[in-house]
């Protein structure tokens, strides 16, 4: 099975997450399935409200495109992160 590790300090503002290609694909599949479940829930229990569908799509696109910003920097490797922290 694929290893997924996260190492962080509680007294720091930084967290390093290392994930494999396979794990990244699984998380993307999970995101798309959750989006589908939101549409199914809307159709089944809220009688397919089109405005809610539009809101879900807009929020999903905003998150995917990075319009909703979070304070997360991504680095290609652990060494890049160490260099960034040393130069800061």
Characterise this structure.
With 88 residues, this protein is mainly alpha-helical. Helix content is 58%, strand content 9%. It has three helices and two strands; from the N terminus they run E-E-H-H-H.
Summarize the structure in short.
The protein is mostly helical and 88 residues long. It is built from three helices and two strands. The longest helix has 25 residues, at 21-45.
Fold blueprint:
Blueprint: E1 5-8, E2 15-18, H1 21-45, H2 50-65, H3 78-87
Antiparallel strand pairs: 1-2
Helix pairs in contact: 1-2
What best-fitting shape do the alpha-carbon axes yield? elongated
Number of helices: 3
| Beta strands, count | 2
Q: Report the helical percentage.
A: 55-70%
Provide key terms for this protein.
2 strands, mainly alpha, 88 residues
